[in-house]
Amino acid sequence: MGKKGGESTSNSHDKEFYQEIGQKGGEATSDSHGREFYEDIGRKGGEATSDSHGREFYQEIGQQGGEARSGSGSNGDGKMSREEAGRKGGEARARQRQRGN
Question: Cβ of 78: how many Cβ atoms within 10 Å?
Answer without folding.
Answer: 10
